[in-house]
Amino acid sequence: xxxxxxxxxxxxxxxxxxxxxxxxxxxxxxxxxxxxxxxxxxxxxxxxxxxxxxxxxxxxxxxxxxxxxxxxxxxxxxxxxxxxxxxxxxxxxxxxxxxxxxxxxxxxxxxxxxxxxxxxxxxxxxxxxxxxxxxxxxxxxxxxxxxxxxxxxxxxxxxxxxxxxxxxxxxxxxxxxxxxxxxxxxxxxxxxxxxxxxxxxxxxxxxxxxxxxxxxxxxxxxxxxxxxxxxxxxxxxxxxxxxxxxxxxxxxxxxxxxxxxxxxxxxxxxxxxxxxxxxxxxxxxxxxxxxxxxxxxxxxxxxxxxxxxxxxxxxxxxxxxxxxxxxx
Length: 328
Known about the structure:
Layout: H1 2-6, H2 12-25, H3 27-34, H4 40-61, H5 73-84, H6 87-98, H7 104-109, H8 113-146, H9 152-177, E1 183-184, H10 189-199, H11 214-238, E2 247-248, H12 263-277, H13 283-309, H14 313-319
Antiparallel strand pairs: 1-2
Helix pairs in contact: 3-4, 3-6, 4-6, 8-9, 9-11, 10-13, 11-12, 12-13
């Protein structure tokens, strides 16, 4: 698995599942950290060790449950869940939820740039891996182009994926240098929609590739290239105010934001349409439709945070459409 990750060959969906399991396993420490609890440090230490402790206890108390056939997937999942999310993990989760004493040092740390970078680290790694994944395709296309063996689709695909790489690199850069947040959304739902909306599109890539003629292949690649380039240009204008979760940093109303309130989502929809064309219908269009709905919901939560932190946002929102000038 590690070799596949380092060479960009691991499936995005598999990485997301692995990341979700790791996040769930570290949830007690994450909750304690997010709440700036004084108990964060012992919870973190025990959270790191709890699976080892539970595995040794299971081996000592119930050795028979650890004996199963390597081909018995159900037994493997059951034992893995017991070792990872057993009683010790549940006690840690309850501890993190019930603890209320706050640590002033952690509270101050939450207002630093280092904290913002730590929170953004999973996204930084994800978008950097996206560049690594596209590298192999770009090298292959470039080799064909230099050898004079590339058709029209290869040329269009190369330009399209280069724009996608530019967008991912810019995302990584801005996540590293962006300003500290001056306001954040309240509750868990804005964060859930922010994360799910960001990664839902990966589901399209797991579908079978659609059988299309050359003109439609080129059209889909052009849409992806135009959407990726547009996203990069809008992102550059948004600059250090960029965020995935609903947060306020600096109010941007110039450039493409002088025409609509959410130009980044508008051009991302172009990329989504191009991607959906390349994969099997109807599921590609169903997932694409869900992504668009999630973009609208995310924009709603983002506007709540901006309105709370920038009084002038109300007038700006009243004068501009959400996605398309003069339409919607």
